[in-house]
Amino acid sequence: MTTEPIQADGQAEVCRKSHHPAEVKTGLVHRLNRIEGQIRGIRGMVERDVYCDDIITQLAATQSALNGVAKVLLDGHLKSCVKDRLAEGDEAVLDELSVTIQKLMRK
């Protein structure tokens, strides 16, 4: 994780960025492209009045795919961003992580 200063409303802020290895980033982009295709397919199913249960099955598959992306991101976040910030003595990252996990667990 690195930070770079940016301007927002005339005040300097810090914008945190994560840096994924190239193969991880490529894998995430491929997964997201497939998910995007699944979403387009679901929209087409709705437009064609496909049976509700079939649409719900596709929605569940898409949600599972999104959860897979979240797991990869969370794993990388723990092993890099969180680890680095804790090493720097920034324990506020634990509160941030707790909020993030709560967001992921919402259904």
Task: Produce a short descriptive summary.
Helices cover 71% and strands 13% of the residues. The chain has helices at 22-47, 52-87, 92-105, and strands at residues 2-8, 11-17.
Model regions low in confidence, pLDDT < 50 over at least 5 residues: 1-8
Major beta-sheet overview: 2 strands, antiparallel
The outline comes out as: elongated
Give helix % range. Answer: over 70%
In spatial order, strands of the major sheet run 1-2
Q: Look at the structure and give the mean pLDDT.
A: 88
**Helical/strand content category:** alpha+beta
Radius of gyration, Cα only, in angstroms?
A: 18 Å
Number of strands: 2
Element order, helices and strands? EEHHH
Hey, roughly how much beta strand do the residues contain?
Answer: 5-15%
Number of helices: 3
CA(first)-CA(last) distance: 29 Å
Structure characteristics:
disordered N terminus, alpha+beta, 107 residues, 3 helices, two-stranded antiparallel sheet, elongated
How is this structure best described in words?
The chain is α+β, with helices and mostly antiparallel strands. 71% of the residues lie in helices and 13% in strands. The protein contains three helices and two strands, in the order ββααα. It has helices at residues 22-47, 52-87, 92-105; strands at residues 2-8, 11-17. The chain has a two-stranded antiparallel sheet with strand order 1-2. A hairpin with a 2-residue loop joins β1 (2-8) and β2 (11-17). α1 (22-47) packs antiparallel against α2 and α2 (52-87) runs antiparallel to α3. The two termini are 29 Å apart.
